[in-house]
Specification:
Helix content is 34%, strand content 26%. The protein has five helices and four strands. It has helices at residues 2-5, 10-23, 44-56, 61-74, 148-154; strands spanning 79-86, 95-102, 111-122, 125-137. Strand 1 (79-86) and strand 2 form a beta hairpin. Helix 3 (44-56) runs antiparallel to helix 4. It is globular. It starts with a helix and ends with a helix.
């Protein structure tokens, strides 16, 4: 958060002015909340962007993928899948490669899966990075206003 806010909040004020200008709003009507992500290794979008930055710095794609998988699993993810597609290592023919550790149940509706997509713009072209992180399953979801007696009556 400190990077976004800046010294004495000057960066956040510049951001507010720019967003207000783009949206056509008065700066007094605009409120921006900055929230810190405690474990960035468990946020799929941040993992994908991190791998993209590494590929742009010419780090080998398999090493970047394996490092991201290891970090996510170490911090408590139940599963992670990473797919990179494009001219990997500057090959003439584009291909897709993926790695997975743990379980990533994409067909399970109650699975809490975070998805992130990023692009690395290399000298050979664009490489796409997709990341799925499985954090667990969601149980006990009830709609607001729904009573337990309604469920019992309907069966």
């Amino acid at each position: 958060p400190g990077v976004v806010i800046g010294k004495k909040g000057e960066d956040i004020e510049a951001l507010r002015r720019e967003v207000a200008r783009m949206m056509g709003l008065d700066i007094k009507d605009l409120q921006i909340n900055i929230e810190e992500i405690r474990k960035p290794e468990l946020d799929a979008q941040l993992v994908a962007e991190s791998i993209a930055q590494q590929l742009e710095r010419r780090i080998m794609f398999r090493r970047a993928m394996k490092r991201a998988v290891a970090n996510a699993m170490r911090l408590g993810a139940l599963g992670i899948k990473i797919q990179v597609s494009g001219r990997l290592n500057g090959a003439e023919i584009a291909r897709s490669e993926w790695t997975r550790e743990g379980r990533v149940p994409l067909h399970t509706l109650r699975a809490n899966i975070d998805y992130g997509l990023a692009e690395a713009r290399t000298t050979y072209g664009v490489i796409g990075i997709k990341v799925w992180i499985f954090r667990g399953e969601v149980f006990g979801f009830e709609r607001p206003g729904e009573l337990k007696s309604d469920k019992a009556a309907t069966g």
